[in-house]
């Protein structure tokens, strides 16, 4: 039914977009329309307006609370996506109305014949509904603009709040230090009293629960540690007997030794806190301190394990970076010292918060921590940690690269100056961020190095997983390298997807911010007027891969089950497989592109642009493509046919849409473009079938009986296999040759592929039989003719007159006389 929405009940833009009714509509109400969800869209927009007003008030009230602003920004983003979805849902109905109005056309003008009343009513109803949709869409757009404005306001408020917090200046003077010292003494006393009272209470009333919690946490840690040693024991300890371990071995031991042991300690600390808190052992004032203590212990242990794994101060052959022994020890000590300073600062901060200490104590504590870290950085910049040129780790090392040393000094001096000038919060923030961010960057870099080492050719096969895959799945070196490449890329992805979010969290981002970024990244990335969805692209790739695999499965199933059982010709099977393959890949590509969110109609412009290139630069490719389709459909030859094309002769082994592969009898593959096979004459010995005629030419001497030769040849050919009896073989007496009688044995073969073997066997049999029958196969002969006037003196007759020599009517001796004269001359020369 048509939705009756009054202008008064809608926003102002709706009333402005309302079109005046047609005169025909005044006499009769429009026909009811189907419910298009317009009323629901109006209600959603009204709710969104109320929600937006509430969020605007919340932003004003939470201008100094960053956590509240983060929560509000998430709600604003959700509201914007909801409004966008509401507007998009109305688009299909709007397109339908527009198309229908185009079909109905404009109302008749004055002086034209009137149209049917039902057409007028439908046009008026559709026009009114279109106006309503335009009004609602306009309100949705205005609301989206207001939401974007509020989102920008939240971001700007958070930025100002962050800057105000960091740049807050505190007076640093002797009186401030004196007040801090007094507050520290009072805090120590209060904390000692609170701790002693808590321990006394626990020992009296919670002794069993405390020991049970500690025992259970230690058991959990031992289980994790023993399991880690059982599974990765060979990667947890270094073998001192190995003089030059591979880089991937060093990385593996550094990674697994740090991960397993740190994870085991973290499990002990976390479970201890959970059990102690769960058994009501911890008091509300002590619980934050215990949590901070456990966190400090975990941080110090992790930095120590990490430094030992990367720098290996006492085992240079296992070191991951090119440092001297002294440099590895000094850098490891500096990192551990900065970790201890940060851990103690965090622990004392928790104590101060639990005890309600004054702000001056927190300021001085942060000041001291920033000064210590600055001094450590300056001291480290003057070290000589780099490995000597000769590669000896025991030799004195080289200085830092000049740029690195300058960065460390500037950063350390900047921390000291910033803290002493009163910007303690900024100095403490930069110091903490430098340490933790540096640790994360180094860890991420090591992860990238691990991926590079694993993906290196012939490296993954030497790992435990590579050897397992070899033995379990019988994988070859090439397959193992491909798996190693995939594992390396996966390590790259994990390292980056872990390191980058952690760095963003450290520099002021919240988890909600990262979730919002990830959502927008995977659902909608706008580049100008183009919207790209990484999730849609990934889905499209998966659908294309699934369609491709399904196509290949259908090809194999049809070929091995349907066509093979039906004894379909090999060429037909190849054509069907090729056609199904191209069709399936095309359909999978269309589905994948559509799932990726790419409008196929937008490709028309690209296709029109490509048509120009096709007409000029790609015409040969298109010609070969079309010719290939013609060959697959028309099938003038097929796979397995014996063809002759130009200088190429052989067996067709493959027909694709671009070229055809012909294998010669010398096993040479010739790739012939399809257009040449279409436009030129091609001989096909096996086009209809494999039956063909074969010939063997034979020559015998003139004194041989021709009928005897023909009988022998027919006898032998009738005994040969693969020779058809219908049509029967026959022998042709071709000609009287210059020195022989020429015959040709002609016979039909059931399979032209056996022609060479049949001809060879027949030639052997013919030669053997001719020798038995005394039939001579003559050699080429030449007659040398001498005229009488030009007989050399050596050939002059001595005892025989010329009259006794046989001559013809022209006075020329025959060849026999010439031979006799030649023989006599040779005898005379020998006697001489």
TrEMBL record:
<feature type="compositionally biased region" description="Low complexity">
    <location>
        <begin position="15"/>
        <end position="32"/>
    </location>
</feature>
<feature type="transmembrane region" description="Helical">
    <location>
        <begin position="208"/>
        <end position="232"/>
    </location>
</feature>
<comment type="similarity">
    <text>Belongs to the MscS (TC 1.A.23) family.</text>
</comment>
<feature type="transmembrane region" description="Helical">
    <location>
        <begin position="527"/>
        <end position="550"/>
    </location>
</feature>
<keyword id="KW-0175">Coiled coil</keyword>
<feature type="transmembrane region" description="Helical">
    <location>
        <begin position="286"/>
        <end position="306"/>
    </location>
</feature>
<feature type="transmembrane region" description="Helical">
    <location>
        <begin position="604"/>
        <end position="633"/>
    </location>
</feature>
<dbReference type="InterPro" id="IPR010920">
    <property type="entry name" value="LSM_dom_sf"/>
</dbReference>
<feature type="transmembrane region" description="Helical">
    <location>
        <begin position="327"/>
        <end position="348"/>
    </location>
</feature>
<dbReference type="InterPro" id="IPR011014">
    <property type="entry name" value="MscS_channel_TM-2"/>
</dbReference>
<feature type="domain" description="Mechanosensitive ion channel MscS C-terminal">
    <location>
        <begin position="695"/>
        <end position="777"/>
    </location>
</feature>
<dbReference type="InterPro" id="IPR011066">
    <property type="entry name" value="MscS_channel_C_sf"/>
</dbReference>
<feature type="transmembrane region" description="Helical">
    <location>
        <begin position="580"/>
        <end position="598"/>
    </location>
</feature>
<dbReference type="Pfam" id="PF21082">
    <property type="entry name" value="MS_channel_3rd"/>
</dbReference>
<feature type="coiled-coil region">
    <location>
        <begin position="133"/>
        <end position="160"/>
    </location>
</feature>
<feature type="coiled-coil region">
    <location>
        <begin position="38"/>
        <end position="65"/>
    </location>
</feature>
<dbReference type="InterPro" id="IPR049278">
    <property type="entry name" value="MS_channel_C"/>
</dbReference>
<keyword id="KW-1003">Cell membrane</keyword>
<feature type="transmembrane region" description="Helical">
    <location>
        <begin position="403"/>
        <end position="424"/>
    </location>
</feature>
<feature type="region of interest" description="Disordered">
    <location>
        <begin position="791"/>
        <end position="832"/>
    </location>
</feature>
<dbReference type="Pfam" id="PF00924">
    <property type="entry name" value="MS_channel_2nd"/>
</dbReference>
<keyword id="KW-1133">Transmembrane helix</keyword>
<dbReference type="InterPro" id="IPR052702">
    <property type="entry name" value="MscS-like_channel"/>
</dbReference>
<keyword id="KW-0472">Membrane</keyword>
<dbReference type="InterPro" id="IPR006685">
    <property type="entry name" value="MscS_channel_2nd"/>
</dbReference>
<feature type="region of interest" description="Disordered">
    <location>
        <begin position="13"/>
        <end position="35"/>
    </location>
</feature>
<protein>
    <submittedName>
        <fullName>Small-conductance mechanosensitive channel</fullName>
    </submittedName>
</protein>
<feature type="transmembrane region" description="Helical">
    <location>
        <begin position="360"/>
        <end position="382"/>
    </location>
</feature>
<feature type="transmembrane region" description="Helical">
    <location>
        <begin position="483"/>
        <end position="507"/>
    </location>
</feature>
<feature type="transmembrane region" description="Helical">
    <location>
        <begin position="253"/>
        <end position="274"/>
    </location>
</feature>
<keyword id="KW-0812">Transmembrane</keyword>
<dbReference type="InterPro" id="IPR023408">
    <property type="entry name" value="MscS_beta-dom_sf"/>
</dbReference>
<feature type="domain" description="Mechanosensitive ion channel MscS">
    <location>
        <begin position="620"/>
        <end position="687"/>
    </location>
</feature>
<feature type="transmembrane region" description="Helical">
    <location>
        <begin position="430"/>
        <end position="449"/>
    </location>
</feature>
């Amino acid at each position: 039914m048509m939705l009756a929405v009054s202008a008064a009940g809608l926003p102002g833009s709706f009333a402005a977009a309302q079109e005046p009714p047609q005169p025909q509509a005044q006499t009769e109400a429009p026909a009811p329309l189907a419910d298009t969800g317009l009323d629901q869209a109006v209600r959603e927009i009204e709710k969104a307006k109320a929600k937006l007003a509430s969020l605007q008030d919340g932003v004003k009230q939470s201008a100094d609370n960053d956590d509240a602003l983060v929560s509000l920004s998430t709600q604003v983003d959700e509201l914007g996506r909801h409004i966008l979805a509401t507007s998009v849902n109305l688009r299909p109905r709007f397109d339908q109305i527009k198309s229908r109005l185009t079909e109905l056309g404009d109302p008749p003008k004055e002086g034209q014949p009137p149209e049917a009343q039902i057409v007028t009513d439908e046009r008026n109803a559709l026009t009114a509904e279109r106006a309503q949709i335009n009004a609602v869409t306009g309100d949705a757009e205005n609301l989206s603009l207001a939401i974007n404005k509020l989102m920008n306001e939240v971001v700007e408020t958070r930025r100002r709040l962050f800057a105000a917090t960091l740049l807050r200046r505190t007076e640093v003077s002797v009186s401030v230090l004196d007040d801090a010292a007094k507050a520290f003494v009072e805090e120590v006393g209060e904390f000692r009293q609170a701790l002693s009272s808590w321990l006394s209470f626990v020992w009296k009333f919670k002794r069993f629960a405390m020991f049970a919690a500690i025992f259970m946490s230690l058991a959990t840690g031992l289980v994790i540690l023993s399991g880690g040693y059982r599974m990765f024991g060979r990667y947890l300890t270094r073998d001192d007997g190995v003089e030059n371990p591979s880089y991937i071995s060093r990385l593996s031991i550094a990674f697994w030794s740090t991960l397993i042991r740190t994870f085991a300690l973290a499990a002990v600390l976390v479970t201890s806190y959970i059990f102690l808190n769960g058994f009501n052992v911890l008091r509300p004032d002590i619980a934050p301190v215990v949590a901070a203590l456990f966190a400090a212990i975990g941080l110090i242990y992790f930095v120590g394990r990490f430094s030992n794994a990367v720098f290996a101060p006492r085992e240079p052959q296992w070191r991951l970076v090119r440092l001297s022994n002294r440099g590895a020890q000094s850098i490891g000590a500096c990192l551990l010292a900065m970790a201890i300073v940060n851990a103690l600062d965090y622990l004392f901060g928790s104590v101060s918060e639990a005890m309600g200490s004054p702000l001056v104590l927190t300021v001085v504590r942060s000041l001291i921590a920033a000064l210590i870290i600055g001094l450590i950085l300056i001291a480290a910049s003057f070290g000589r940690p780099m490995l000597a040129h000769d590669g000896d780790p025991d030799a004195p090392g080289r200085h830092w690269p000049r740029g690195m040393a300058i960065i460390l000094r500037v950063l350390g001096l900047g921390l000291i100056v910033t803290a002493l000038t009163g910007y303690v919060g900024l100095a403490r923030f930069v110091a903490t961020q430098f340490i933790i961010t540096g640790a994360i960057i180094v860890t991420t870099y090591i992860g990238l190095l691990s991926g590079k080492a694993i993906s290196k050719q012939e490296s993954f096969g030497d790992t435990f997983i590579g050897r397992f895959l070899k033995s379990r799945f019988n994988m070859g070196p090439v397959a193992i390298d491909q798996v190693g490449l995939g594992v390396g890329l996966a390590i790259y992805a994990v390292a980056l997807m872990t390191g980058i979010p952690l760095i963003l969290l450290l520099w002021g981002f919240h988890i909600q911010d990262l979730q919002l970024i990830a959502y927008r990244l995977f659902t909608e990335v706008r580049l100008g007027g183009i919207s790209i969805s990484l999730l849609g692209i990934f889905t499209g790739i998966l659908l294309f891969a699934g369609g491709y695999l399904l196509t290949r499965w259908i090809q194999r199933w049809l070929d091995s089950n349907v066509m093979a059982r039906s004894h379909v010709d090999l060429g037909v099977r190849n054509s069907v497989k090729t056609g199904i393959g191209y069709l399936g890949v095309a359909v999978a590509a269309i589905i994948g592109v559509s799932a990726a969110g790419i409008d196929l109609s937008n490709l028309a412009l690209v296709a029109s642009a490509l048509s120009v290139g096709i007409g000029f630069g790609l015409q040969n490719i298109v010609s070969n493509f079309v010719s290939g389709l013609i060959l697959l459909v028309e099938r003038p030859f097929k796979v397995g046919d014996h063809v002759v094309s130009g200088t190429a002769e052989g067996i067709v082994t493959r027909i694709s849409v671009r070229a055809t592969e012909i294998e010669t009898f010398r096993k040479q593959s010739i790739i012939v473009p399809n257009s040449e096979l279409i436009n030129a004459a091609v001989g096909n010995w096996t086009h209809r079938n494999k039956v063909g005629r074969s010939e063997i030419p034979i020559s015998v001497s003139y004194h041989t009986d021709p009928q005897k030769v023909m009988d022998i040849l027919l006898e032998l050919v009738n005994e040969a296999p693969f020779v058809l009896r219908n049509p029967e073989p026959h022998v042709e007496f071709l000609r009287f040759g210059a020195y022989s009688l020429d015959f040709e044995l002609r016979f039909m073969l059931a399979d032209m592929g056996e022609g060479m073997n049949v001809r060879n066997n027949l030639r052997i049999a013919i030669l053997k039989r001719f020798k038995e029958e005394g039939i001579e196969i003559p050699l080429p002969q030449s007659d040398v003719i001498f005229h009488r006037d030009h007989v050399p003196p050596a050939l002059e007759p001595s005892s025989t007159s010329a009259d006794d020599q046989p001559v013809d009517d022209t006075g020329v001796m025959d060849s026999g006389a010439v031979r006799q004269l030649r023989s006599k001359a040779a005898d005379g020369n020998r006697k001489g």
